Amino acid sequence: MNAAVETIDGGKATLAELRRAGIDALAKALGPVGMARFLQQFDPGQGDYTAERSRILGNPSVDAVMDEIELRRTDPEPK
User: Fold this and answer.
1) What are the pLDDT digits (tens) for 61-74?
2) Which of 1, 10, 64, 66 has the smallest C-beta neighbourhood within 10 Å, fewest atoms?
3) Closest CA to 68 of 78, 53, 54
């Protein structure tokens, strides 16, 4: 039932051709639902993760992180 996937020259193909061939190959190999689930893994999301992480976490030292881990092990209820 698996039809052969057409091979293209990835080095010479345009980005649109490469994208189309990739989607076709995924659809043939995984089916439409599997293809959609696979592609969902690569959603770039929104925002700037690095800036958000710094805003939320700051720049704690390794010792501060270890202290927080130890505190949560002994008293798991957040205050």
Assistant:
1) 999 999 999 999 98
2) 1
3) 78
